[in-house]
Amino acid sequence: MNIPNILTTFRIAMIPVFVLVFYLPVSWQYEGAAIIFAVAGWTDWFDGYIARRYNMTSPLGAFLDPVADKLMVVISIVLIVELYETPWIAVPALVIIGREITITALREWMAEYGKSTDVKVSFIGKVKTLWQLGAIFFLILGGANPSIADIYGYPLFIILGYFTLYVSVALTLWSMYIYLKAAWPYLTSQK
Prior knowledge:
Blueprint: H1 3-23, H2 29-53, H3 59-84, H4 87-112, H5 123-142, E1 150-151, E2 154-155, H6 156-187
Antiparallel strand pairs: 1-2
């Protein structure tokens, strides 16, 4: 276990804490959950930085890091769908979760043929993740009793949450297109 793997394991361990705080019957439940989510998001960036900078990459880390990311994102999105109870959140959530399942399966399939580098994480995939994390953070905060700022009667965090969510959905579809385009020759091959 090196430092990046410890940070990734910490991120996975934070998921049940995040869910517990999200459901706590206290006035600060959403603020607390948002802070835990933000800390988990920063450990994602930090463990990757340390692994690359100090050459601490490992097979365990290569496996755990995307698992931790997808668990945190999918679980958070499911909670947000429940919180908002609107198709304006549910439909983007379905797109994001559907893309995650599709690309994970695609990467697994490509790895069986030794072509996993053709669908490795791209820059647009990283940007998509950043927007998703922002959307989740703002939407969790938007569930709190808003007292910071309103714009035309809507809480600032909800406006930011919807905006970043829809940008992340556009990036989600774009990145999925890029991965599917790279894999298409193999998917349609007669060999």
